Amino acid sequence: MVNYSAGLDATFGALADGTRRAILARLSESDSSVSELARPFSMSLPAVLKHVDVLERAGLVEARKDGRVRRCRLAAAPLAEASAWIARYRKFWEDRFRALEKYLAETAKEDSSWPIHHRKHRSFVSRTASRPRGRGSSGPGRSRSS
């Protein structure tokens, strides 16, 4: 079994929630207090604090107390690790799509009717007739009275 880093797991777990992604987007513009971060959301301040705590445990946010105010700032290092992981798989899929494109181009040369959407389609009609319903039939399915 492949063992991924706990940091990467925590990063993707934190990014899985839209509220936390919105908080990170806000922090990418400037540092903010938790109260400022909570303003656009229709949730309580303790609920926003829980989201900030998840981001902090994932290493995406650094929070410090300034008197009674908790100030937050974005810590981008875990995002760089996640981006590198995604880039590796982006390359994999781009290579696969290029190979598929090459295969389809070669197939098109061999079969002039390819791709299929260029062919003239005929309507396919079933040549088998459906059986008529019996007398007094209530239609498909069972009725409640039986």
Rg calculated over all Cα atoms: 29 Å
| Major sheet summary line | 3 strands, antiparallel
CATH architecture classification name of the largest domain: Orthogonal Bundle
**Number of separate helices:** 5
Provide the β-strand percentage band.
5-15%
Secondary structure tally: strands? 3
Say which CATH homologous superfamily of the largest domain is assigned.
Answer: Winged helix-like DNA-binding domain superfamily/Winged helix DNA-binding domain
Number of domains: 2
**Which structural class matches the secondary elements?**
mainly alpha
CATH topology of the largest domain: Arc Repressor Mutant, subunit A
Describe the structure.
Helix 1 runs antiparallel to helix 4 and helix 1 packs across helix 5. The chain folds into two domains: 6-76, Winged helix-like DNA-binding domain superfamily/Winged helix DNA-binding domain (Arc Repressor Mutant, subunit A, Orthogonal Bundle), CATH 1.10.10; 79-114. It is flat, with a radius of gyration of 29 Å. 51% of the residues lie in helices and 10% in strands. The protein has helices at residues 6-15, 18-29, 34-38, 45-57, 77-110; strands at 32-33, 61-66, 69-74. It has a three-stranded antiparallel sheet.
